[in-house]
């Protein structure tokens, strides 16, 4: 049987205080879209979405 791997964020607040943001980023060179994923604290979600990187 295969084992299921579960990633956890075991800090003081646990993983409930983080959000996973997935952005679609268009390449200037090819015009294709790629996806950038990042984990940010809930209080920094809006600033992470406004950033252009």
Automatic annotation (TrEMBL):
Organism: Rhodocytophaga aerolata
The protein's name in its UniProt record: DUF4295 domain-containing protein
A Pfam family matched in the record: DUF4295
